[in-house]
Amino acid sequence: MTTQGDSSARLAVLVERVLDERWKFSPAEAASSGIHSYDGILLPVTLGSIRVRVAELRAAQADGETIAPDGLSPQELFDKDLLLLGLRHEIWELTENLSFRRDPMVLMWPLEATAYMDRNYAPIEQRMASMAKLLRAVPAYLDSVRDLLQPPFAKPVLGQAIEAYSGVAGYYRGDVTEFADANLPIVAGVEVMRAAEDAAEAIDVMVAYLRSQESTANDDFAIGADRYATMLSLGEMVNIPLAQIEAVGERELARHQALVREAAERIAPGKSLADAIAIVTKDHPAADKLIDETREMLEEIRSFTIDHDIASVVSEVRAAVRETPAFMRWAFAAMDGPGPFEEVATESFYYVTPAETYWSVEQTEQWLSNFGYATLKIISIHETYPGHYVHFLRHAQAPSAVSKVFGAYSFWEGWAHYCEEMFLEAGYGNGDPKLQLAMAQEALVRVCRLLCSLRMHTRGQTLAESERFFQGQAFMEELPAKTEALRGTFDPGYLNYTLGKMLIYKLRADWQAEQGSAYSLKAFHDELLSHGGPPVLLLRKYMLRADDGLLL
Do 74 and 207 have their domain in common? Predict the structure, then answer.
């Protein structure tokens, strides 16, 4: 007979084993999570190491499935469910999805060295020594990445990979080398400079390899309906038919287009929709003021979050606004917080992507149209307060190691996207039609992501058709629309912004119905964020006394 103590003890041992094996397979993830004993370690990834990893995962899954639920605490039951989901998802990725074989960018992320430069978790001498160690390992690591890749590649994915890796080379020769040069009295600074150039040259070789594949590249980027459905099932616990998800997308498209038109009529009565949108999009910071003016608006947004009881902000530390590093500039904006196990560093960075200096005046204006002041406030709500940054702060306080490690795309991005509309519902902006238009237009971009992702990967919709869809349905300029459509070719999961938002709204409505007069918006948000970043459908199991099964 299994006792409560037996189940709890077995689960604790399994969690410790799973995490130890995870960090050894992916030391870069461990380091970025704040486990600094893994700093600077960058191991080649081979078919042999993947086979070993899959065997570990299958053994852990088998052990986990035999742990009896009887006697486990609610947190332990939650951890077991989340752990098993994470194991199954990684097994699928390494044995069936195999995105690391068709997308050169999948294994690119460990090449980043920003944390060693910007996060003051240890003396600079120690951080620079770790950075030099990482950079010295880059050539062998990239050799292993090329050995894993299986051309031919999809043209849009290949093109983005060439741009991204070129950005890494520029990052090594620029930011990394400049940082080392500024700290040359430290012996490790010389080592970093030498290693950075060697690593940049290895990136050059990688870029040359990718360019050599352009002649055989094709248009076959779609992952197919079966793989798409499995991605949602194992990654998000979403088993809703794809046709139903598409129908929700169509509904949200119509709803937000109506909000755009309503706001447009208030902004420019009697004029065209294009005229009203132009009023909002053309009122943007100058190219050289984008970062400074973004920084200035964050304090107001933070104060509203606190003063109007939106969610608990558990730190006085502010997120620093910076230009997006070159290798990340496929995103308009992004949040980079410390890892959940970080015990010393508190620095977080809100990256905003400026117009490139080599663009034409017309291209620069098109890009900056995405950063009109109203839109910039909505983006900042998403990225900082009460969006990603507040979530980062709460994630570090998650109640277990499992809830700090395993999570879901639909929660991370669904929460931040949900915050955009929720914040206005809570009174931010006092009904300002420019903010409403900006919020609704940003939502339209995310809805178009959902619809284009589904249609590109399961229905044969082309990249060009997706670009036109973003332009026509989300009222975007050509350049941002092209960037959005391109992302969908290598990131089919970007449907999770809208999908996660809708799942959170449904959970909120059901939780409010159960709480009755005890309900408050802040209480819901604090409860939601207290579990880390798990699939929303797993949260339903633990937050609700009853579940009607109607998810959207």
Answer: yes
